[in-house]
Specification:
Blueprint lengths: L6 H9 L2 E5 L2 H9 L5 E6 L8 H15 L3 E6 L21 H8 L2 H5 L13 E4 L1 H4 L4 H8 L4 H4 L3 H8 L6 H17 L3 E5 L3 H15 L4 E5 L26 H9 L6 H8 L4 H12 L4 H16 L2 H16 L8 E3 L6 H7 L6 H9 L3 E3 L2 E2 L12 E4 L3 E5 L1
Parallel strand pairs: 2-3, 2-5, 3-4, 5-6, 7-11
Antiparallel strand pairs: 1-6, 8-9, 8-10, 10-11
Length: about 400
């Protein structure tokens, strides 16, 4: 397959949403311009049922690389998810069962497929699972993997050092995670691995193993995380249950985007959309000159819904938001649910207005739920046909 070496496209890949390239940006640029076809992968552990906009940053870059003709692999860490990635965590992750992983995986490919074309026959994109090789490793082979890393190097991880100082538990199995992720690169014989900056340690472990077992270089690309530049908090986190999932319905996706902090607006345009950088720079200048960030946030929400649904649904979602939030009206079209006779907490969960029973109770106790435009305080309220349930300012359902 002929590889596209267009300088402008390569420059965007090297700079947009990129934090660091190992061993160097210059060496990777030279490789991209050589015309050689590279095998590139991004891994994701199925620790939740959804893929969020933070993950999408990597898949958008993968799409650009795929468009140039390179070989792309999306790797699902169905085995590593059962270990638990300690990256950026101040406590051990909950270990998942086989059933947990199977449930979470149900729609992963469909969600990622909103960005990457898995039906492309000219340049097929592979969708792999690391249990294919990790589940077959012998104990002797795991010991050999471990022999290439010192305890001192493992303890260089900031979160490990912090947990030791705070006298929090640090489990031996957590040391195995970077070894397993590192071995993925060896098993697939990849040239490039890409992931967020929180994955740097794990990806560099793979670079170490590739050098040892295959006597060659592996490029590591770290991408920017979607964070609030003021507080440093992640905007998207599966482990915290926050963020905007690629499986969100249009109105939810639009509304959640409108709730993002103003200070993260430009970074979200860069990392989460296909809007050209020249236009984004103009937006940034306009904000510095006093432009209303709300107007640009509407544009951001529109672009995101258009990407994952359609332009028609983006138009409808924008109108829904204007009607329900800006104009404070009850929308004309409300999704209906056959939940007559059920308690309000059960209704909120089944309609997916909340994530759990405790989330439902919290919303009611904080006066965040209305029934027929009246704030609800009764946790045992039983809904009736015709009731209009409102959660927050934007989300409505009707009981039938």
């Amino acid at each position: 397959m002929k590889i596209d070496i267009d300088a402008k496209k390569i420059e965007e890949i090297l700079t947009r949403s990129i934090d660091t390239i190992y061993p160097s940006k210059e060496s990777f640029e030279k490789k991209l311009k050589s015309g050689d076809r590279l095998k590139i992968y991004v891994g994701i552990d199925p620790t939740a049922t959804y893929v969020h906009l933070g993950h999408a940053t990597n898949y958008i870059i993968l799409k650009r690389l795929h468009d140039l003709g390179h070989e792309i692999i999306v790797l699902v860490g169905d085995f590593t998810a059962k270990i638990g990635d300690p990256s950026d965590k101040n406590a051990a992750r909950k270990r998942l069962t086989d059933d947990d992983v199977k449930e979470n995986l149900k729609s992963f490919k469909a969600q990622i497929g909103k960005i990457l074309d898995f039906n492309n026959k000219e340049n097929p994109i592979e969708f792999k699972f690391n249990s294919e090789w990790l589940s077959k490793l012998t104990f002797e082979e795991v010991v050999d993997l471990a022999s290439h890393f010192t305890v001192q190097r493992m303890l260089e991880r900031d979160n490990f050092e912090k947990r030791i100082k705070e006298e929090k538990p640090l489990y031996v199995h957590e040391f195995l995670y970077p070894l397993m992720q590192g071995y993925d690169s060896v098993a697939m014989e990849v040239d490039v691995e890409m992931g967020g900056t929180d994955q740097t340690f794990n990806m560099l472990a793979g670079r170490t193993l590739v050098k040892h077992y295959q006597k060659r270089e592996k490029f590591v690309i770290t991408t920017t995380l979607l964070e609030n530049p003021v507080t440093g908090e992640k905007l998207m986190s599966k482990s915290l249950g926050t963020g905007i999932g690629l499986d969100e319905v249009p109105n939810e996706m639009f509304g959640k985007t409108m709730c993002l902090p103003d200070e993260a607006l430009i970074q979200c345009f860069i990392d989460c959309t296909y809007v050209e950088m020249e236009e984004i720079k103009k937006m940034e200048e306009a904000l510095k000159k006093g432009s209303n960030p709300r107007d640009l946030k509407v544009r951001l929400a529109f672009e995101i819904v258009k990407m994952y649904h359609s332009e028609k649904e983006a138009v409808a979602a924008q109108q829904y938001f204007v009607d329900t939030f800006k104009n404070k009206e009850t929308p004309e079209e409300i999704e209906e649910f056959e939940l007559d006779g059920k308690k309000i907490i059960e209704v909120l969960v089944e309609a997916k207005l909340v994530t759990s029973n405790s989330d439902a109770r919290r919303n009611i106790e904080q006066n965040g739920v209305k029934v027929n435009e009246t704030v609800l305080t009764d946790l045992n309220y039983v809904v009736s046909s015709g009731d209009i349930i409102q959660k927050g300012k934007r989300f409505f359902i009707k009981i039938k």
